[in-house]
Amino acid sequence: MKTIQNHNNDDNNNYEILEKLKINNYLSIYKILNKKDNKIYSLRKIALNGESKEVLEKIKNEVKVLISINNEYIIKYVNCLIIKNTFNILTEYYEELNLRQFINKYRKENKLIKQNLIYHFLKEICLGLKEIHNNNLIHRNLSPDNIYFTKENKLKIGGFGIFRQLNNYNEYILSKNNYYNYIAPEIIKEEEENKKNDIWSLGCILHELCTLHYCFNSNNIIKLQNKIICKNNEKIDLKFYDSELQNLIWLLLKKNYNERPNIEKVYELVSEGCDIKTEKKFEKKGEKSKIKMIIDIKENDINKDIYFLDNTDYEDENGNKHFHDSIKEFNELNTKLYINNKKYRFQKYFRFAEKGEYYIKIKFYFSVKDCSNMFYNCNSIKSIDLSSFNARNVSNMSNMFFNCDNLTNINFSNFNTENVIIMSNMFCQCYNLENINISSFNTNNVINMSGLFQSCDKLINLNLSNFNTQKVIDMSNMFSYCNKLQNLDLSLFKTENVKNMARMFYMCENLNNIDLTSFDTRSVNNMSEMFCYCENLENLNLLSFNVKNACTMEKMFYNCKNLKNIDLSSFNSEKVSDISRMFCECKNLESINLSSFNIKSVNNCFQTFYNCKKLKKIKINKETDFNSFEKEFKLNNIIPEIVYI
Fold first, then answer.
1. If you average pLDDT over residues 86-107, what whole number do you get?
2. d(CA 596, CA 603)
3. For 597-603, what is the mean pLDDT?
């Protein structure tokens, strides 16, 4: 076979086309026979569309590396030619099933894949991915569709995404719905590509092998991307799989790519899971002991008081004092519960527990100062009674009920929060909480409420009339993804110290009106995506807003498709540098008042008015240079009347 080069003539004498599959106008795939070696190959032809020499050279250099790789876990790349404005890629051919078809087979049979088989698959994928990363390549398109079985039942990785840099191929790949199911958060955010993107995709594949459905899924691409960025994946069946497998999934799907392991570390963890002794130990002991523990607790002790162990003196139910200096702090790693004189880790028990009505009444015999992560991921609990819990000295309640996605009721009567400073993500991802009675909450000292009610999908009404927000600095994501929230009275909110309101009402799709006339925004520096996807918002009075310190308003009103008028005449935006997509997809917007708007510091105005097709009038300051938006108006066929004030 020839090396990579440009050809003007296509010599077909050595090849016979056995089958042709046309994907679209730009991509065709052929099954061909090479008459010289009598072997079958796969040929992809991708039409070029004005790509630069730099792009083509970059792709050719990457393919050169691929051709040089000989690895039993990677589809062999044989040749790559540019012929008559077409990119031609020749690879070895496989007609065996791929991993997607294997998963679908198990789903149809309603059976889970055995753990040892999953570890076996994962190990082979890791061996291929190791070779890819060791050659300084990124796969870019790792999914079950691109992992193939050989006749010997080995897995081979194919379908590299290096050709996404071609305009037409990029259009094809983005049209495939399942491409987005494996894309990493940093790619959605348009950050630089890196090898950890593949680690995320591997985590999605592992989760799918354990659950037989997508890790993240939605019929709407935008909502799917938002799930990937903001939401955590659901837990796998821990009665069928070991907790180490769940922990590996969580590790691979860290939102921050810097926290994900590299492929060498993943391979090391997977190799440990493939150990035969570990498998036998799990099958014989692990699963049964967990179930027995759950049954014992459920039947005999679930309504009894629970006693915790901490690093302070406390008095047990018999009056005996205890002190444990080996435990440093109160968190998920050392919190224990005592039932029938047996010691269990609190979170570990409730994470493995079966779903049901767990009535949890907690009684402490010591002073608790930190409740962060207390019920983190305890998604078996449906009801919690905290009426006997003395929280007077607690200062941190961040992530306290994070991802308790089956929790429907919390008894907060007598709950003292007077010393709490941090409430960030306290109820985040409590998807089934329909009502939260927090009238007893004292928030006089709280400085952080970021993500407080984020992704509380079933909340319709929320009474915050008792909330004192005078010391709060961060309200970012406070109500984001509260999709059903209809009534929200924030008229008593004091916001003069708040610096961050990014995504504060993000995806509050059912809010018709928000009264923010009492808001003092003099300290706010971040308003990005503040009302993004508030699709039913019809009225919005922001005349009280002082934006003198705001630096970014990116996507501030993105897809507020029912807003017809936006009056920002009080906005002095002299420090704002980013207004990209600020009014993007406001399809019914007719007029905008920007008479005090100052765009001198703006360096990013990408698609500010994209798809504002009904925009008729814009009021602006006579000193404002609006020429930078003329090109965008022309591209979107927008002809607004510009009124200089």
1. 86
2. 18
3. 87
Say how many C-beta atoms besides its own lie within 10 A of residue 497's C-beta.
16
Please tell me the distance from the alpha carbon of residue 450 to that of residue 447, in angstroms, as a whole number.
Answer: 9
Per-residue pLDDT at 377: 73
| DSSP-based three-state secondary structure for 39 | strand
Give the tens place of pLDDT for each residue, 411-448: 898 889 999 999 999 999 898 898 899 998 999 999 99
How far is residue 338's CA from residue 313's CA, in Å, rounded to a whole number?
16
d(CA 503, CA 476) in angstroms, rounded, equals 6
Q: What is the C-alpha to C-alpha distance for residues 9 and 28, in angstroms, rounded to an integer?
A: 19
Edge-to-edge strand ranges of the sheet holding 409-411:
359-361, 383-385, 409-411
As a whole number, mean pLDDT of residues 270-293 equals 43
- pLDDT confidence of residue 170: 59
Eight-state DSSP code of residue 423: -
Q: Domain 99-278 adopts which CATH fold? A: Transferase(Phosphotransferase); domain 1 (1.10.510)
Distance between CA 639 and CA 298 in Å, rounded? 68
CA distance 609 to 590: 12
- Summarize pLDDT for 303-358 with one digit per residue, the tens: 333 333 332 333 444 544 443 333 333 333 333 343 333 444 444 444 444 444 44
- Which position has the token pair 């984020």? 454
Residue 310 confidence (pLDDT): 31
Q: Which fold does the domain 5-92 belong to in CATH?
A: Phosphorylase Kinase; domain 1 (3.30.200)
Distance of CA 500 to the CA centre of its chain: 21
SS3 188: helix
Element (H, E) at 126: helix 115-134
Are the C-beta atoms of residues 42 and 92 closer than 8 Å to each other?
Answer: yes
pLDDT tens sequence across 201-235:
999 999 999 999 999 988 777 788 888 888 888 88
Residues forming a β-bridge with 641: 617
**DSSP structure class, residue 182:** G
CA atoms of 252 and 198, how far apart (whole Å): 10
625 vs 600, which has greater pLDDT?
600
Q: What is the mean pLDDT of the chain?
A: 80
Q: What was the pLDDT predicted at 451?
A: 96
Category of 562 on φ-ψ map: left (φ > 0), alpha (ψ -120 to 50) or beta: alpha
Least confident interval from 235-244, 321-330, 471-480, 630-639: 321-330
CA 115/CA 134 separation, integer angstroms: 28
CATH level 3 topology of 479-645: 3.80.10
**Residue 53: how many other CB atoms lie within 10 Å:** 7
CA distances from 149 to 10, 115, 121, 515 (A): 32, 18, 10, 58
Where are the domains positioned within the chain? 5-92, 99-278, 479-645
Position 272 scores a pLDDT of 79
The residue with greater pLDDT, 295 or 587, is 587
CA distances from 37 to 3, 33, 94, 478 (A): 17, 9, 17, 64
Between the alpha carbon of residue 512 and those of residues 430, 434, 483, 554, the distances in Å are 23, 19, 12, 22
Contact 476, 453 (CB under 8 A): no
Q: Are 558 and 584 contacting, i.e. CB atoms less than 8 angstroms apart? A: yes
421 SS3 class = coil
Residue with tokens 């939260």: 436
Q: Which residues pair with 87 in a beta bridge?
A: 46, 82
**The pair of three-digit structure tokens given for residue 309, joined into one six-digit string:** 């162990």
